[in-house]
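Annex B. Sample input.
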Amino acid sequence: MTPRITSLTATDFRSLRGTVTVPMDSPVVLIHGRNGAGKTSLLTAMELGLTGNLASLSRLDPLFREHLVHKEAVSKKAAVSIGVHGLGVDFPAGHFDIHGHKFAGRPALDPDLTKHFSERCYLAQSTLTRLLEFYEDKAANGTALTRFVKELLGLDALDALIDGLYDAGDVRRLRGHAVSFWDMREQLPSLDDELSRLARELTAAEGQAAQLTQTAEQRLVPHWPELASLSAQAMLDLLKDQSQEPELQRLTQLRRELNDTVSQSQRVASTIAAEQREAVETAASAADAALRGWLDTSGKRMTELFGVLGGYFSDLPSPIQNRPEYARGYAHRAITTEVTRCQQVQGKDQAAQKQVSTLQTDRQGLTTRLEEIDKQIVQHSREAGQLAQALSTLVPHVHTEECPVCSRDFGEISSSPLLGHLTARIASLNQSAGLLSALSQERANTVNAVAARDREIGVAQAQILTAEVRAEYVQRLATLETSLQVLSALEAEAKAGETLFGQAANAAQALASARAGDQQSAAIRNSAVRYATLLSMDSISANEPLQAALQRFLAEVTARLARLTEKESARRDGEAALRELLLKQQNIEDIKARQLERRTARRGLHEAKEAGERAMGQARELLKLAQVERSRVVGQVFNDSLNAAWRDLFVRLAPDEPFIPAFALPQVTKGDVEAKLETHYRDGSKGGNPRAMLSAGNLNTAALTLFLALHLSVKPQLPWLIIDDPVQSMDEVHISQFAALLRTLSKQHGRQVIIAVHEKPLFDYLCLELSPAFEGDRLITVELGRTANGDSVANTLVRDWKQDLAIAA
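Annex B, continued. Sample output.
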């Protein structure tokens, strides 16, 4: 089935105000309207629905999206829908909704067909006068002629091959593309450097291993001769059980005890006299009495208060365990924190109550407004529902006079076309439907607002405390605030109690020291006998002074510690040297393994480099062959046959013009193929660029025929020709020839032709020339205008072929 545009609907799009629906299921569609009636806007809406973009406007104004919605549109939005059949199920109808400078929807064509439509099927009015400039200007259109010539001659593959092989001609150009080959060239010198570095590291590591072996033997062999001539690992295994640490700890502990015993014996010698012990006992008794008096008064009050606070705080320290001021300060900080928390909870509860009251008042107002909207919806729904919208969806499916709903021939009950009757009925229902739609939208917004208030009320009510919890917080806060005041009043008494606890403890300690002085001297002499046994030395004699015996034992312990410390230090140094030696030996093995790996990699890189250089030679040879082949294709294919279509079309429309525009393609073997334009005089000589040789009228003719020639030169993906006011600067001869050309394209070449003109006589002439000529042929004419209130209207007339009975008779 031949692809065809079947219908177009535009609402408040550019200069089109209101909704305009135009049927287009015809080989030829002629659109007429005075300047500003909306012809260009209608074709622009067609471009948007098909491609999803407006390439014809983007060349003129980069901010065109901000002006797509009609300035007087009540809804401040626009919409475009287009129907297409014959492209398969993968190409649905195109539709776009436009809000401000944004539009959302999906086009009817895929990206490949979109490109073909923009370059080969649609010629905008603003593009026609500058078409040749767009084709030749690289910045404006990206050398469109060159891309067309390459597509026609099939040079893209050869150009891609030549471009891809260009870097193979010089190794310096491979840095950015053949990264692997360049990396191989750079890795070989670095591998050589690394092998030299590894050789130096191996020599240094072997020297350090020999030095570590010598150090370990010097430290260990004097103490353990059996370790001589063993391996490093064997030495470590034997040294595991040679640690002197337990004996060192025993002797160190024994020396500490001896030092303590010497100190005790010296203190006992200076113990206070017996007459002073009585004064110490009196002071201890007085301190104890003062402490008991505080415990019976201030201590009792603090204990009772802390008993009450225990119901709120489970981790309070005791106020009568030596530090009453610390306990009072700890409780004061805990109560202050809890009071602050309770006040914050009460504040949140009061704020939540106020918020619930405010939200309930707001919800009552919204409910009243919702009832008023429901009354208005019931009133307007009697006048019109969604019938207008349902009828609008039927327009793209009306292709004949058969009703798509009841399958009845509409011609049996009316002489007017079914599509025209349906369009008129839609227009009559639009006003009531629009008002009902606005009320429905407002009702939905109000319902959403009521639901939002209900959610907010629920959240706020969840934060309100129950009466029981609120009363509990009031009682808790009162109790804590009273306790806080009592604790502040007890600060001085707590500090005094802490002072009394310290004085009593000091007096008790002094008394205990005085009483134990006489007993310590005898105990110290008895313990000296134990030291002699532990050290296997002569015991203390009856005539040997205590201080002399203790100093003798202490000197022996110090000498033994010195010998063991030296031996343990030698063991630790030796073990450290042996472990470092093992690591160094492992390092030597790793260096040897890396050397072997790098030598293997170096051989592989040399082989890969040689293979890459062979591949580069083959690529250079292939590059030469590709350049020769491209030169042969250009010389064989690009000849007068490419210019034949353009020449025939141009001469047909401008038979008196002596200069004929044509393509000029240079014969090159290197570099890109670039298509240029020139003119040929009728005697065969060459002229300049068409823009310099042709008049304004013939220059437009050249641009128009170039567009048609490009359309006809390749197999059409979309058999459509859509041209906006193509007869600018044409005289009667040009117009007559152009009408015949359009008739040929439509009737013989199967193109769907859509033409927009603004001159009424020309429109009538084209209607006559392009009228249906055989059975199944059709012509649709569309006359754009405006109603008294400024809304756009499209008067559509569908002309089917009818047999001339007079001639048939």
